[in-house]
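S., here's the first fold you wanted:
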Amino acid sequence: MTTYRDPVPDLFDPPENQKADDAPLAERLRPCEFAKFFGQDDITGPDRPLRRAIEADRLSSVIFWGPPGTGKTTLAHLIARHTASQFVPFSAVSSGIPELRTIIKAAEQRRALNGRRTILFVDEIHRFNKGQQDAFLPHVERGTVILVGATTENPSFEVISPLLSRSLVVVLKPLSEDALGLVLDRALMDAERGLGTWKVEFEPEARQRLISFGNGDARALLTALEFVVMQTQAGPDGVRRIDRPMLEAALGKQALRYDASGEEHYNIISAYIKSLRDSDPNGALYWLARMLEAGEDPKFIARRMVIFASEDIGNADPLSLVVAMSVAQAVQFVGLPEAQINLAHGTTYLASRPKDNASYVGLLEAREDAKTHGNLGVPIHLRNAVTALMKGLGYGQGYRYVHDDPQARIEQAHLPEPLKGRQYYRPKPQR
């Protein structure tokens, strides 16, 4: 009789006290208990459903979605330590469909022999294309595996709908400054896995600057902390004292999280446009600064300003379109860094002008009528009689020339008969 042997280990990393001393600080400090998992209390607090499901080993398929360094992989580690199910890692970067077939076969054998469940952790699930994601679906449906996915991209766009509908989506937020402070303090105090034996002291301003540098990302914070401490010379008393100038010199310029083709790109431009629309120049300038600092193409910003000038300001101030076009030309002519001044000029102007979207709304309503009613004929008095035949058919007959008859402007019909009386353009009264 052949004895079944599991082809994969129970856990995908060694116990916390066995982590390599030369591993990065962020890896050494990865929490192995919920009490040390900071910043996501909304989903991992003692009374939260996800934590109860993990601790009771009743987890169903779930997708963790959040920015880098917010705890997606750490949550997977916690699941591995708090469940009796077999936990199998699977990376979209280094694994493929052949490896998945091996894992599924082992999961089927495990389930048949002892009823033990298999939790399949798929890191960076968004890197699998739609066809590859289809390979998971039948096994999730049959319960062969419980899928735990992790992604930095919006699963609405990056995960196929059938898989998404069978999974709970858990959103992890960027860590607050308070949470990053707790992570930092733990790293400085932990003598076994952190920097507790290094005798590090931060001046308050430098500590706050380092937390800000983390930008909601615990991994980035710990990586920066380790680098700064290693670059700082100890004083005669053995203490490494770090002030803000030393910190700035070691870290250089902070890289803001911004993906020019991803969701954060659209989130920030949306915040910028809504600040303009709400006539808030302060908010608009902040989001403009965020885009410029992150390296956004200034021509993209200028194009959105041109659209905004007509869509949201319109005839409340027709000069806004002229200003926006001038900014767009200035951006092309001047280039960065000076063109940021032109962008700021246009931003504050557009934010400060009265708003009226009547032209845009009217166009949308007219287009809807055009689609609904099809090819309604042009009223015959509005047609040009360019041939004798057309003149004989009555083209142009009854047309009133407004320069000779000013009343024609309001009395003469300009819409097809089925749309008579339609009013598309309804400008707002200006205060």
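And the second, which I think is the more interesting of the pair:
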Amino acid sequence: MLMFIMALYTVYVLFRIYISIMQIGFINRAKRQQAVLLNTAEYLKAAEYAVSKEKLSIIGTFIEFLLFIFWLDAGIVWLDNLFLIHDEALKAVMVVLSFIVIGGVIHLPLEWYQKFVLDERFGFNRSSYGQYIKDTVISTLLTLVLGGIIIYVVALIMLSSELWWLWSFLFIFAVIVLLNMFFPTLRAMFFDTLSPLDDDELNTKIAILMEKTGFTSSGVFVSDASKRDARLNAYFGGLGKTKRVVLFDTLLQKLSHNELLAVLGHELGHFSHGDIYKNIAAMGGMLFVMFVIFGNLPESLYLELGISQSPAVVMILFMLLMSLLSFIMMPIMGILSRHNEFEADKTGAELGGEEHLVSALSKLVTENKSFPLSHPLYIFFYYTHPPVLERFKELGVDIYCGEHSALEGECPTHAR
């Protein structure tokens, strides 16, 4: 069983690297053609950024593989023997949190490079070293506190029931729902400063827009995201009465009122179609399958690893193999998500105007330096949103770039 898992994980890692190499080659070929959607300078810069990120991703994948080998070969045994605690639930907290912290520390240099070298070079990073250290410390403390509580409860469940995998799934799923409800509040408490939108005209337009879809929220807020990053974004956070609209200040700086309303119309499309609940249900289904698998691993696997079937060990194995199982299941989630995005675009076009949504998406591509083309395999496994050119096509906008291919000329957009 152990050899099968090792072989499967190796294939998974090699396949991920293969997809990254295919994506890099695709972008390098595409960038030598004339620009699509962006002007030539923006197009080349977006290509360089995409390739740089993918190269960094390959390094991260390779480190992940080395860590996987280490943990299965000797790391789990070493960590399990490090804490001589008789209380199995408490020991699980110490062992699993140590596993998480070690992994986080090892990946920290890549994260630092991404932010202070790569993102800095392309003009995204606005965070200071002090801000980064503060954010990292707060994130770590939240992980230790909330993670410790979750691990302790799951360990108690595992020690008290043979159907621990079912009750643990229900508990974790409930935690995910609660986090979705209170995410905007938690983020505002520890990371971003949220302030009510003080543009009366825009507030009125947003209220009218929300009324059309029956969306009620606890307010429209502006996040000071620009203190960390230059990218544009917005989100509807929370569930039920906790729903709120959060706009990044960078978005307000770059989009006109009409463009912003079209983007919010897209998000309201997700609400009116029940996509938030569909996504939670899909995530729950994926999580359930994972718990079924890990709740029924053969005892022979633990014997081969030379470790006991303790709560701490089971949880570490779960986290080690979760990325593999997620990778296998994510294409299904991606297909559903991309379909939902197309439908939300239709709503955004109806509520905010097709031309304004197209204009807003174009600005998002430009400001976020998103390369507009990707290898089909990369799209299949990683894209939760359809490529922007496909979104334009669904909206009835053609990109004319020569007779045969969108790579053959600079691409103006105009509606059919």
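Why I say that: The two ends are 57 Å apart (CA to CA). The chain has 14 helices and six strands.

Talk tomorrow,
H.
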